């Protein structure tokens, strides 16, 4: 048995020795570097010491090796669970926890500790914190100090071994030191010393390409542009059509004196001009820079906006739409129409010759007797004055009960009557001027009236003036229902039309017959606010001017013949040419419209020669003249020739601007009339005067 | 009946125009490329007559191009190059991303480039067209040549611009075609007459630029690209017309061979030649050796009377060209060398400067034959007796006046007379500064009158002008007033007529009345004008009146200034 043992030991020791030699060699190679596990090193140490013993005292090896053997076997004798690395909860329902080396069941240790026991254990047992349960055996293990230390080290992320130095200097496996032995003894590949066939093929191809001239060596690139005679063959046919369409960019404006570095002193800006320049928007400025003066050329600084200006020019060149603009190259003199000279159109009134003073307020209306000897004027100071035309003497003043709106001399030379309207009354006056026979005849005409048998209800009350009124010249008094604004006679002198402007009612115009003391209302309907009315000088037509239209009625047929569109906002006055085919309308929006009734219902000509509203217009009875008075204080006399030939249109030429009236209360000339026989014009104004222009 | 229903915006002006964005899409170019293409090809937007119709009813602000123009662009080979370049950039970026440096190298070497020759030919089918349009090109090139060599654009561009500018200036010198020069606060304007075309360009003063941030340099660079090509071809052709060598070579004989010692200090070997060219001090080499009198005199036919006038003009012109002939200038170091050298050489003068100032100086300050020394400082220490020391403005004023002006007013430390713009041509009714009148008188050969007389004259002139203007202005007012006056006279009756002496007043009155009559006639005729004509007439008259007003204002300002300065002058005279 002993022999057997010794043989076994010998074998064992032999193995150990070989092992040792191997390890020792390894250690020597690594220069004592610890590459092995801690446990492994421990084991080797043990083995080393053991084998040293063996080497030194081979005689007593048996006992030592026995000791080693025993310790070895004791270690391996512990209870091993052989189930392997499996989840242990699989055994949770079984009384055993696995199997030992012999295949016998390992029973779970009895655990009858409840929570309370656990707690008491926790409180009382000082080692409780280092007690862990072995999952494999189910037994409680108390960790030793080294183990606890190990756990701590691992938790801190350190190496398990205390002695291991992780920061030792690294030694390159391959270093510059040439070693006598190769690291590997692998023989060299064949390809490492035989030239590559593929490369050879490629090079061969390149060589061939170079030989054939397919590949040329790289030349340095030409960077400077090459110029040549681009226009050597100028072909006029090559000019494209679009070049004809092309609008060349306009050249930049050339600088003026103000841009000079040393400009004349007048081109420099004064202080206030400079301030104004600075406050202007850069786009609105007339000059884009401030003119400056420098004493010498050396003092001139760089212009800070130079690049800006170039850039703006660039933008202009490629962003601005271009357009050929036809410059209006007209001589302004050519625009003025060629009219006959006023000199050749004489006679017409040119100078103011007489001023009729006496009225204390504005003179609304004037009228000249058919003989041309007397002038009557009605004013806002409630008087009517009669003047002798040639001497400007006031012959008679008649006071009436209100501001006089209109006066009209009877155009019949055999009757001497003047119609005067104030408030709602129209009075027929006999001034008693001129031929006594005529005066008495007209008085008789009025007094010879006999009342008809059947008395009708009249629109207007006719009354005969008596007493003081009669002495003053009042003959008939007509009381109207509304304020009367205008009175006008028919050419024969028997009929008298009155205007009572009213928006609502149909009673705006009434026509009186003086000889029969009869009144009629010609219109049933209200067609707008009536401004003025007028009788046709020859034919039985009646003109009614409302705000925007002039209506022409035929009195015999009792129908509307024409409606003239005046193209203006508000008609103020109207006059009818003695021939009867032309009408002029003045309006408050500064226009004078000339209608040719034969041509159209629209104005033949509109004149805008006044600067303010027109108040009145008038035709001369014989001469081809018409005049207009306006709020700007001027009377404009125009030559208005009407030809008998139907093909020729009337010729209208303004011939004279007559000024004299002063403007008071924003009113200028209120009424104009022509002398019946002479080329004279009378005008009455807001300054209380009547003026005669001859 | 029948036929297809007509749809809106499918015919007429709507189909003639195309909006910018649509055009861009049609050409499949990015906006930047489209812009570049438009600049190069000279395509500009158009303003349609009926914007709303073209805009399909919308009133949004849009730029429109003619559809024809865009169609024309479709065939442009440059468009293909643009696309290639776009692809190149993409490939290059990819190679950079992958760090394939050899690939980057290769690609950079094969960078796609384009030439603008055909575009120049197409835009300017004849040479004269190109010369006519060279103004902007010159201004731009001269601006770019003053840029610093770092930063805003490629160094090659700057060098090229400089080279072309120098070539141009050398041509102008060789052809003696400079006409006018103007020192403005912006820069120096030059005007030359090349092949019958007046060309004006501006060169900024020699200072570093502070580059503005709100300027798109890409646009400027594109323009410069076009302009350099244009200018190069124009220069080539111009040199050819004068039998000069292109690229310019200095005339081999004499002068500059002497100065070779100091060249090394000034410039590198490679650059010294171009710098010498830029110095503008030497004449250029010709392909055909020059004959003394180039311009062969025309055969003289004494019978032709008309020719004499032309000949006179020609002679005058010739004389102008040789304005500085025989004069020797020396430039002090503080004056703008290049500009002065250019101008003086253009008019046949000789010019030099200090050796250390610039390359290419031909003689020293000590040269006894120098006639004019140009200095821009109040005093100078060492003065030579036999030469004039004058300020640089003299040269420019002489050029503009076409005569050698008296030098007294331009001596050192003297207050300079105003420098007038030669580009202003006063028409009737414009304000003419008195200095200009003086110059005109000098040109006619009159002697400059004594100062006092002159002033009086000026004043008289001004007074007359003012009177005229006033009379114009007041005409209407007077007419209005006249009626009132007459009325008053009438009211006062005979007492007035007694006092008036008959002889004196009458002739004036007749004139006056005639004038008044005419004025009234005119006024009455104006009343009868049609509305549209009246509007136009009023507008024209308003413009005229404003013109007169401005002229009057300037005259008044000048008068006030002169009045303020008179006492000083008189004092000075007394002192003298």
Automatic annotation (TrEMBL), chain A:
Key word Lipid biosynthesis present: no
PROSITE patterns in the record: WD_REPEATS_1, WD_REPEATS_2, WD_REPEATS_REGION
Organism domain of life: Eukaryota
Annotated GO biological process: maturation of 5.8S rRNA from tricistronic rRNA transcript (SSU-rRNA, 5.8S rRNA, LSU-rRNA); maturation of LSU-rRNA from tricistronic rRNA transcript (SSU-rRNA, 5.8S rRNA, LSU-rRNA)
Gene3D superfamilies referenced in this protein's UniProt entry, alphabetically: YVTN repeat-like/Quinoprotein amine dehydrogenase
GO cellular component assignments: nucleoplasm; PeBoW complex; preribosome, large subunit precursor
Recorded GO MF terms: ribonucleoprotein complex binding
PANTHER family: RIBOSOME BIOGENESIS PROTEIN BOP1 (PTHR17605:SF0), RIBOSOME BIOGENESIS PROTEIN BOP1 BLOCK OF PROLIFERATION 1 PROTEIN (PTHR17605)
Assembly description: Component of the PeBoW complex, composed of BOP1, PES1 and WDR12. The complex is held together by BOP1, which interacts with PES1 via its N-terminal domain and with WDR12 via a high-affinity interaction between the seven-bladed beta-propeller domains of the 2 proteins. The NOP7 complex associates with the 66S pre-ribosome. The PeBoW complex associates with DDX27, BOP1 interacts directly with DDX27. Component of the PeBoW complex, composed of BOP1, PES1 and WDR12. Within the PeBoW complex BOP1 interacts directly with PES1 and WDR12. The PeBoW complex also associates with the 66S pre-ribosome.
HAMAP family: BOP1
Similarity comment text for this entry: Belongs to the WD repeat BOP1/ERB1 family.
Job of this protein: Component of the PeBoW complex, which is required for maturation of 28S and 5.8S ribosomal RNAs and formation of the 60S ribosome.
Protein name: Ribosome biogenesis protein BOP1
Source organism: Cyprinus carpio
Automatic annotation (TrEMBL), chain B:
One Gene Ontology cellular component annotation held by this UniProt entry: preribosome, large subunit precursor
Ranges where the BRCT domain occurs: 319-412
BP GO annotations: maturation of 5.8S rRNA from tricistronic rRNA transcript (SSU-rRNA, 5.8S rRNA, LSU-rRNA); maturation of LSU-rRNA from tricistronic rRNA transcript (SSU-rRNA, 5.8S rRNA, LSU-rRNA)
Pfam families xref list: BRCT_2, Pescadillo_N
Family matches, as InterPro entries: BRCT_dom, BRCT_dom_sf, PES
Keyword Methyltransferase: no
UniProt entry tagged with the keyword Transcription: no
Keywords of this entry: Coiled coil, Nucleus, Ribosome biogenesis, rRNA processing
GO molecular function: ribonucleoprotein complex binding; RNA binding
Segments for region (Disordered): 443-519, 554-576
UniProt biased composition (Acidic residues): 449-482
Amino acid composition bias (Basic and acidic residues), ranges on this chain: 505-519
Location(s) in or outside the cell: Nucleus, Nucleolus; Nucleus, Nucleoplasm
Description of how the protein assembles with itself and partners: Component of the PeBoW complex, composed of BOP1, PES1 and WDR12. Within the PeBoW complex BOP1 interacts directly with PES1 and WDR12. The PeBoW complex also associates with the 66S pre-ribosome. Component of the PeBoW complex, composed of BOP1, PES1 and WDR12. The complex is held together by BOP1, which interacts with PES1 via its N-terminal domain and with WDR12 via a high-affinity interaction between the seven-bladed beta-propeller domains of the 2 proteins. The PeBoW complex associates with the 66S pre-ribosome. The PeBoW complex also associates with DDX27, PES1 interacts directly with DDX27. Interacts with IRS1 and UBTF. May interact with MAP1B.
Family listed: Belongs to the pescadillo family.
Biological role stated in the UniProt entry: Component of the PeBoW complex, which is required for maturation of 28S and 5.8S ribosomal RNAs and formation of the 60S ribosome.
Protein name: Pescadillo homolog
